[in-house]
Amino acid sequence: MVNGLIGRKIGITQIFRGGEAVAVTAIEAGPCFVTQIKTKTKEGYDAVQLGFGKAKRLNSPEKGHLRGIGEFKYLREFRVDGDTFLQLGEKVDVNLFKIGDLVDVTGLSKGRGFAGVVKRHHFAGGPRTHGQSDRHRAPGSIGATTFPGRVLKGTRMAGHMGNTRVTVRNLEVVSVQPSRNLLLVKGGIPGAPKGLLLIKKAKVRK
User: Fold this and answer.
1) Cβ within 8 Å of residue 57, ≥6 positions away
2) Which letter, b or e, does each residue of 114-130 get, where b requires 16 or more Cβ atoms within 10 Å of its Cβ?
3) Closest Cα partner for 50 from 3, 102, 98?
4) What is the pLDDT of residues 153-204, one digit of tens each?
């Protein structure tokens, strides 16, 4: 069976459970449709490709690939566990999950643009006194002298922050509402509202 869905982040809210306010994130999860089936005999592994969202326009190769299935904006691949009995064009929806399941959610984090080391890497900054007037948010030394005589790769410095692929693991499914294609998971997930998400069943971790 396929182990995940494509979805879209709606936003964060809270629900009351057992007299306790629980922060949850609402996700529009599916419906998705099977657009391609990959098998171990042909491609070397078992997987299905799912389509999500209505596309405004498709190019010729996309139209050929999706002929007779639909016009989807997003196509993403998910591995399947063992034999799959899904057919091309078959609908996969939020009923894949149930309350209490643990899921891994992947999305693009919010882009923060060019950020300094204090915001990007949580540096403490330089001294605020003893004649230091411009060291408050500076990184300090980034290298040595004669040896190695260069700045090492991976040195934490200012640069582009955010807009990267982030996965939050083991989030609890709090509510499943098939009539609204709605999934509520406990806690926060990466990305801005309306951002694309991949929701997968969490792997068993010891």
Assistant:
1) none
2) eebbeebeebeeeeeee
3) 3
4) 999 999 999 999 999 999 999 999 988 999 999 999 999 999 999 999 887 6
Name the one residue in this structure whose structure tokens are 């300090």. Answer: 140
List strand residue ranges (DSSP E) for the chain, in order.
4-17, 20-29, 32-38, 47-54, 72-79, 91-92, 102-108, 113-115, 159-161, 165-177, 182-186, 196-201
* Alpha helices by DSSP H, 16-159: 60-65, 117-121
Could you count the other beta carbons within 10 Å of the beta carbon of residue 93?
15
Distance from C-alpha of 51 to C-alpha of 6, rounded to nearest angstrom: 8
Report how far residue 111's alpha carbon sits from residue 161's, in angstroms, rounded to the nearest whole number. 6
DSSP class of residue 178 equals: G
Bridge partner residues of 75 (DSSP)? 51
The CA-CA-CA angle for residues 139, 144, 148, to 5°, reads 130
Helix locations, 91-133, DSSP H: 117-121
Q: In angstroms, rounded to a whole number, what is the distance separating the alpha carbons of residues 126 and 101?
A: 46
Rounded to two decimals, the pTM is 0.81
Q: What is the pLDDT of residue 138?
A: 92
Band (206; pLDDT cuts 50, 70, 90): very low
Count Cβ atoms below 10 Å from residue 22 Cβ, excluding itself. Answer: 15
